[in-house]
Each structure stands twice: as C-alpha cells, then as structure tokens.
Amino acid sequence: MAAGPRRRALGRWSRSAALLGSAVLAYYTVPLSSAETTEARAWRWILFILGVLGLIALTAHQIRRQLRSRDDTGVRLASIMVVLYAVVVFFSVAYYGLATRAEGQMEGIATRTDALYYTVVTLGTVGYGDVHAVGQGARIVTTVQILFDLVIVGLLASVATQQIQRMGRRSRQGDEQRDERT
C-alpha cells in the first residue's frame, strides 16, 4: 500500500475512533430528563420518532455516499460505522429512558452501561436473556432497533463480499500476468 492510501486509511480510522469516543462520551455525560409526567412521556415518544426518522435520513445519506464511492471500501466501511455508532447511542438512550422512566418496560437495566450492553447484545443477535424488553413500548423500540441492525449487518456483509471478490480478481489477474511472463 502506497503512502497516500495508507495515510487516507489511517485518517479514516482516526476519524472513526474519534467519532466513537465522542459518541460514548456524549452518551455517558448528557443529562436525561427525570420528569415523569404524561407530557414528558409524550415528548419522549415524539423525540423517539424524530430520532428514528433522523437515523433513516442518516442511513439514506450514507448509502448515497457509498454508491458515489464505488470501489472505495474505506469510504464504504466508514459510512457504515457512522450509522452503527448512531444506532447504538440512540437506542442505548432509548432503553435507558424506558428502564428508568417507564415502570415495567425493561428488565435488567439499571445503568447506562446496562442499556449500552443490551443495545450491543441486540445488535449482535446474541440475546443472553439477562436483560430483556417486558412492556409493549420496550418491545416496539427493540423491534425498530432489530430492523436497523438488519440493514447495518446487510451493508457490512455487502462490503465484505465485494472486498473478497475484488481481492480474488486481483489475485487471478496477478496469476495470469505471472503465467504470461513464464
């Protein structure tokens, strides 16, 4: 790998690490409302819907970015990571809010770390059973997260498959060039 592509790849990974660090820092430090009124519950659902619409817009933007990048796997992977970080932080906040503000919605979430853990376990489709959605609201939020997770995993699989195919083509081309020289 030449110095230019290596430097670009390092820059992408540095930006990705900085974005992840910023997302985690924001997640743990941004205060969440503690009011539990009917109006506060309504606002939380409105914000959840707006957040989901924001995630859809971000995903659409990143898909367009991937289509423009064509063969640049680094851009494609970076755009997926942006969506992944946003999904994890957004749903962690949603689960924490449900667990601490809505009685009987979540089982096993007492801290922000518990909510982050549940989000990542759901993303990984592991499901240990120690933390789970109990109420209908929590089940709706979990279902929406699973739908986003399927899109993200599908995009990652697509990028990985294309990269493997590209490496296979390069290998075959190199073999053919060596065969022609001998």
TrEMBL record:
GO terms for biological process: monoatomic ion transmembrane transport. Keywords: Ion channel, Ion transport, Membrane, Transmembrane, Transmembrane helix, Transport. InterPro entries: K_chnl_dom. Residues 84-165 form the Potassium channel domain. The keyword Transport applies. It comes from the Bacteria. This is Potassium channel family protein.
